[in-house]
Design brief:
The complex is a heterodimer. Chain A is of the alpha+beta class. Chain A is 59% helix and 16% strand. In chain A, helix 3 packs antiparallel against helix 6. Chain B starts with a helix and ends in a 5-residue tail after the last helix. The longest helix of chain B is centred in the first third of the chain and has 36 residues. Chain B is flat.
């Protein structure tokens, strides 16, 4: 708040200075043009003074850097706490810890009766008011990372191909060879289908933050709030929410985890093929 | 309008007043007229900044080609409607859309049958929309608990005022429509008071969508993002949502919520103004 007031006063001071200068100039055609210019500058500072109400965080770096690409921060926006269960962000001298909680909801409207649909909507309404603290509930649709699964399929196909080659040399294993070839065709079809389209997955989670002067203080308050919230969520939906830890957290934060790299290259090559 | 806004308006309008006071020093004639026009333009800009800074700010950054770097590898584009992350030459553009689901989360003053119909249809519409969307997105509901006693006192105060108005209207032979309208307002307030008495917690909410698009250039990613935002607007149009693209400072705020969320209602309300 103090910085905001300081910035406001500084710009108002500049505005008054230029307007007073314009008013103090002696009369004369050349001076009158100069007066209008000074007045325009003074009024511009007046508008900037008002804009500082919302944009103090931009105005100070903009004035300091005088560049078209204004760098507000060149640091990573967060780091994962040593306990791997919170996202840490530094705000001035304070630490903000954010805990992500996964809510396992796997119900579909297609398998619900009208009464169940009504109950479910009411449960969602109750979920939103489950905590007195500020909580963010999110439903996220993201592209599944199928790299590991595709690799497993490829390994299976390779081993089956080896098996088929070995069986080809043995005359008494014709039936087994047929079975292996059948399996091979099945896994090839599976691989083709999986690579053809991207698969999307829907997850629901909640996030809650807490501040502290020390990193561990912020983490422990955030974890405490998360536990309270989890108890509320559990009672509303009858499920067991869990705190998200480690690399899984990145799925909720980093855009590249929403669309895995393999999918992007697949999508781009598809676009190129369409253009050609 | 809050106290801060009033203070900023008074201080900046004082400058305009000073200009009017020193107008005689501009020598009269055309120069005085120019000075008046400039001052009026400044006043209009200040008023617009107060009520719709999200229109003015992108215009300025677009015209001057100003971009911001909120954190390492991230960039807010000059149109102020997307945050782009560069990951090894791939550009991930993230944008936000407000999507207030109030008719589903809160019972409004509408008739019970109408409310029930909406609540019943919500899971189906949601599921259909999800099935038709072929790109990643997130729907966030940010909620913060309000002080129950304060809300109750405020509602009771408003109900007493409406009851006073009603008794005056009945004594003064007001028309039937005005009396019915006052009765409807009292009934709505009474319903809200009853719900709090039954144990429901009053909450403040901010709801928004977040979506990410990826491509090989910043421009291509931003274009793809715009297409995705339009698709989101179409997909969720069945839910009577107010979907509008977030631009300007609120984009930065929503981006930072992934790493650090507000920890109190005061903090939350300080972030949002007109768009949300």
């Amino acid at each position: 708040m103090q910085i905001k007031i300081f910035v406001l006063m500084a710009f108002l001071g500049m505005s008054i200075f230029f307007i007073a200068l314009a008013a103090a100039l002696p009369p004369g055609i050349m001076f009158d043009i100069l007066k209008i210019l000074l007045l325009a500058i003074g009024l511009m500072f007046d508008v900037i003074a008002f804009a500082s109400r919302f944009y103090t965080y931009l105005l100070i770096p903009a004035v300091k850097q005088r560049s078209r690409n204004i760098v507000l921060s060149d640091e990573e926006p967060y780091n994962i706490s040593p306990s791997a269960d919170s996202i840490m962000h530094k705000e001035g001298s304070e630490f903000v810890a954010t805990v992500y909680v996964a809510i396992p909801l796997y119900r579909s409207a297609t398998e619900m009766s009208d009464e169940e649909k009504m109950d479910f909507t009411k449960q969602v309404s109750r979920l939103v008011g489950v905590s007195k603290d500020t909580v963010r509930f999110t439903s996220e649709l993201y592209v599944m990372n199928k790299d590991a699964y595709i690799q497993t399929l490829k390994d299976t196909i390779n081993s089956l191909e080896n098996e088929a080659v070995e069986l080809t040399n043995k005359k008494d294993k014709a039936k087994e060879l047929d079975r292996t070839k059948g399996k091979l065709a099945m896994w090839h079809n599976m691989l083709d289908n999986i690579e053809k389209a991207q698969s999307l997955e829907l997850i629901t989670y909640a996030a809650i933050s807490a501040k502290g002067t020390k990193e561990f203080e912020a983490v422990s308050i955030a974890q405490q709030r998360a536990r309270e919230m989890m108890a509320g969520v559990g009672s509303v939906f009858g499920v067991t929410p869990s705190v998200v830890i480690g690399q899984e957290l990145l799925k909720f934060i980093e855009p590249e985890y929403l669309i895995p790299f393999s999918t992007v290259s697949e999508q781009l090559s598809k676009n190129i093929q369409q253009v050609m | 309008m809050d106290e801060e806004a009033i203070m900023y308006l008074i201080l900046t309008f004082l400058i305009a007043l000073i200009v009017f006071l020193v107008l005689p020093s501009f020598g009269g004639g055309i120069f005085s007229i120019i000075a008046i026009i400039l001052t009026l333009i400044a006043i209009v800009l200040i008023v617009m900044l107060n009520w719709a800074d999200f229109i003015i700010f992108p215009l300025v950054t677009n015209a001057l080609g100003i971009t911001f770097q909120p954190a390492r590898n991230y960039k807010i584009v000059k149109s102020q409607d997307a945050i782009v992350k560069n990951v090894n030459g791939l550009y991930y553009a993230t944008g936000y859309v407000t999507g207030n689901l109030f008719p589903y989360v809160f019972k409004l003053e509408s008739r019970q049958e109408e409310e029930d119909r909406k609540m019943l249809a919500a899971p189906d519409i949601w599921e259909r929309a999800i099935m038709n969307i072929g790109f990643p997105f997130k729907f966030h509901v940010l909620s913060s608990g309000l002080d129950i006693q304060n809300v109750r006192d405020e509602l009771e105060g408003r109900r007493s005022y409406q009851e006073f108005q009603l008794s005056r209207a009945q004594q003064g032979n007001a028309n039937e429509m005005a009396v019915t309208e006052l009765r409807r307002k009292i009934s709505v307030l009474q319903t809200k008071i009853d719900r709090i008495s039954q144990g429901e917690k009053p909450i403040a909410t901010v709801m928004y969508f977040e979506t990410t698009a990826v491509d090989v250039s910043e421009k291509a990613a931003a274009d793809r993002l715009n297409a995705q935002i339009k698709s989101l607007q179409v997909a969720f149009s069945g839910m009577d949502l107010q979907l509008s693209k977030v631009v300007g400072r609120e984009l930065y705020t929503l981006f930072s919520f992934n790493f650090s969320m507000p920890t109190s209602l005061e903090e939350l309300s300080a972030f949002f103004d007109r768009q949300s």
